[in-house]
Amino acid sequence: MMKSESVGINVSDEFKEGISLNQSLNTSEISNVGQGGGDINVNDTHNDALLARAVWITRLADDNLSLSYSTQELLNGGHSLVEVLDIQTCEIIKKYVDEKQILAVAGNLDILSLNAGIKDMLLRLASVNIDSSKNSNNSYSLMTFNKGNAREVLNLRNMNNTIKDYKDLRQAMLNEWIQIRQDFYAVKS
């Protein structure tokens, strides 16, 4: 049995207790859980799938949400593991899926009232958006400048520049470093 070391929660038991309440996990085989001795293999594989999904959601949340939505904080706040996963799923969707995409997939913007299948699709879309965001913010993409861009170069020294997001901040920092390097070598020669 797998236990959470810092909280002392038996994850497998927590899933069994709260599985009927969960609407954010894929619940297509929940009816098989606990129907008798002949379904032990189905139960084990289903619980393993739920556990793997819980780990995936927890990693996404811990890596991409604020500390108030970390698994540990929510568990310490008295939420069950199933509630924690549902809260994290909804927050990941709210943060990383555009409202137009939610409306296109779900038909409405009320994430809490969506069924498990739609939440699952939106969570996968959020994961793709997170990966795309990380790839667009890598240093190589910042160094490939658009030649047709006529706007002023972002720099930390220029007070007239407005830094709108993380990508602009990284671009300004990179440009500042390039300027410092050029100034250094200009003084040396």
Contiguous runs where pLDDT drops below 50 for at least 5 residues: 1-7, 16-39, 144-150
Major β-sheet, in short?
Answer: none
Q: How many discrete domains? A: 2
Q: What is the residue-averaged pLDDT?
A: 75
Instruction: Indicate the proportion of strand residues.
Output: under 5%
Q: Helices and strands: which structural class?
A: mainly alpha
Distance between the first and last residues' Cα: 67 Å
**Principal-axis shape:** elongated
Our Rg estimate from Cα atoms comes to 23 Å
Secondary structure tally, helices: 8
Per DSSP E runs of 2 or more residues, the count of β-strands stands at 0
Helical amount among residues, as a percent range? 55-70%
**Element-by-element helix/strand order:** HHHHHHHH
Outline the structure in words:
The structure is a single chain. The protein has 189 residues and is an all-alpha fold. It has 2 domains: 11-136, no CATH class; 140-188. The chain has 8 helices and no strands. The chain has helices at 11-18, 40-64, 71-76, 81-96, 99-106, 116-136, 139-143, 166-188. The protein is elongated. The protein starts with 10 loop residues before the first helix and ends with a helix. The model is unreliable at 1-7, 16-39 and 144-150 (pLDDT under 50). Pfam families: DUF1357.
